[in-house]
Amino acid sequence: MHTTQRPAAPAGSPILEMARRAAEYRAAGHRVIDLTLGEPDFAPPAHVVAAAQRAATRPLGYTPANGIPELRRAVRQALERDRGLRRTDAEVTVGCGAKQVIFNALLATLRPGDEVIIPAPYWASYPDMVRLCGGTPVHVPCTAGSGFTLSPDALAAAMTDRTRWVVLNAPGNPSGATYSHDALTGLAGVLRQHPSVMILSDEIYAHIRFGAGEYVSIAQVAPDLSERILLVDGVSKAYAMTGWRVGWGIGPADLVQRITSVQSQNCTQTATVSQIAAVAALEGPQDFLTERCETYRRRRDAALAILKQSRHLDVQEPDGAFYLFPRLATDDDPAVADILLEAGCATVPGSAFGAPGHLRLSCATDIATLKEGCRIIVATLDGISAWSR
Fold it and tell me: Would you list the domain boundaries of the chain?
């Protein structure tokens, strides 16, 4: 690792900041619909909770930094079941959520001046993590017209001799965008021309999709690039286990070893009880995933039906995840988010995701609350007569 001075810490997550403000409004006695956090409102599966309860009654010591063997095996089996990919035990590492795995990977590989290509809109934490690890985020705008996805031409134009990573997140947060087999094939063609560039494929929302067919990962489309791909996943979203903090990375053994070395020094390991619970999640029944995905679809459709009534919003139907990302009639999305909070609905400005002029709404709440929040948004925006499209 390079011993350079790290940049100053960022201001903090804008998503959590809006959630904090919404909580303050509620504490002051105001009625606020909170559509900020990407946190499922489901309980973890009952068999997962039971496994954790049993584990908690016996002595639990330290585990290997890269996760208990049972969890690494469960991850490999789930990868084969869900993606048709086979990996060895040495190619799996476990962290305190997918977020920490990504951070550890960047910390283990970035040198000052290294660039990380991040398609925008992006998850708000990517750029800050890159900066904290000494790298430079390179944002590549992806418009609604392109389905909020990175094109081969845009990727090729962003590549330099300093590019170290390319980030792909699908279904995407905040857009819900996914990549087709053909789209990934085109990106793989560009990546083959840059053999020193790694690919970070964040697939945390892979089980929350609304289109037909199986999920497609770049690791499936381009097996010849497997030595350069870090596939990241976890139990937070699909299994409604955000607070359990279990995620994993699957990639080349040398990279996994470097990630594990960082993990061993920054927090030793992921909580043992949480790892045992994650084993139960991956090895237990999976049919509830389809049921919950259908619930998210119903919520999405109900919210879309309301939001599309506003003349001040342009709303695309997301392919996955549990967010809506409508386009406003103004680029001053922070001001709009403030107005909506005052009106009783908390959202996150699109600027936090590299897409000014948008808002992110989480559909991870019950449908009645979601619909109420969307009605507040429409009524408030339509009451601003100065706007016009």
Answer: 14-43+287-382, 59-283
Alpha carbons within 13 angstroms on the beta-carbon side of residue 78 total 26
The per-residue pLDDT for range 258-296, each reduced to its tens digit, is 999 999 999 999 999 999 999 999 999 999 999 999 999
The superfamily CATH assigns to domain 14-43+287-382 is Aspartate Aminotransferase, domain 1 (3.90.1150.10)
Distance between CA atoms of residues 252 and 87, nearest Å? 9
14-43+287-382 against 59-283: fold identical: no
pTM greater than the 0.90 cutoff: yes
Determine the topology of domain 59-283 in CATH.
Aspartate Aminotransferase; domain 2 (3.40.640)
Q: pLDDT tens, 372-382? A: 999 999 999 98
